[in-house]
Sequence to fold (223 residues):
Amino acid sequence: MRVLLVEDHKPLARALRRGLEEENFSVDVAADGAAAAERARQQGYDVIVLDLMLPKIDGLTLLQQWRSNGLKTNILVLSARSGIDDRVRSLNAGADDYLTKPFELNELLARLRALSRRCQQDQASVIRIHDLEIDTGARTVKRGGQAIPLRPREYGLLEFLAVRRGTAVTRSLIWERLYDEQGDTTSNVVDVYISYLRNKIDKGFNPPLIVTCRGQGYMLRAD
Fold:
């Protein structure tokens, strides 16, 4: 699961990042509201963990902006404010959950997993694009009724593009999704995996679904 942790208290941010990564979460950290807004705009996250008291843009304002702009990512609010008014205000602004400080890491982990399950249930189990079918539950792929075996990273890349079909996805974002880490995005690893997918998804079929967007990245055609 890919998580954006928005927390300006550095010791807490370090501790939470370490704890989440030990449980195999992929974590990015933003220390203020402006940085969080930029990361959420550029990256695709499964869950955002959002502190309310932030420099530059406070958490509640950020939450309202995200929802008014159509951001669908699940958001868990962290706050030292335990009053019912703050909880209601956050939930009304679009938060999916609210956890007061101090808290146990195990409770945060449980809530994040619950939000992840909710997200998976909300998504269609089968994505259909032209004659391509992606069963996200079984992690199987067919095109024109023909089963197409994919390796795990090939499947992960295809599903990542399919969820964002019709939108160009940058090489750097694909790299992070394939490897869950920052790295040398100037290498041709992404192009190689795109080539693998094209040979399996597009070769022998019409129309070709994987499109190169010059200067931007790659895109899977929408219907």
